[in-house]
Amino acid sequence: MRKIYFxxxxxxxxxxxxxxxxxxxxxxxxxxxxxxxxxxxxxxxELDEKWGVSTSFTFAIKDDTGVRAKWIVxxxxxxxxxxxxxxxxxxxxxxxxxxxxxGLGGGNPVGGEQFSDASExxxxxxxxxxxxxxxxxxxxxxxKYAFVDKxxxxxxxxxxxxx
Length: 163
What we know:
- By secondary structure, the chain is mostly beta strands.
- It is 12% helix and 68% strand.
- It has one domain: Porin (Beta Barrel).
- It contains one helix and eight strands.
- It is elongated, with a radius of gyration of 19 Å.
- The model is unreliable at 4-8 and 15-19 (pLDDT under 50).
């Protein structure tokens, strides 16, 4: 019986999500502090015609002179549509940076691998625009500035699918 209740609540929740506006996005972008590119997956929930909430997961990696940097960024943002499909966003961010100094095989003449890991919390603010291609397929562009220890700009371009 509990399974039936759970299934009913899940279906009603999905119907509510569908009625309001739910989207999934995939994008590629440039991160200025890393001076590299990364891939992002977005989940967007539109509360009404003006307000929405989004979360994104970004993974970026860069190899440079024997050092490999990996970034994992998780954002949770509030969105406000200003005009047409132009929106402003602001929210919180979690950033995890892993640096690995590669050994002799990775181009490091000194040898020996070294590893360091750091994480921090911050905020971000930015803007974006969504352009509808067909039915539920959109192209979007977004630029935001992350307020962390060493701030950076994250610009991305991608596809969004609305359900």
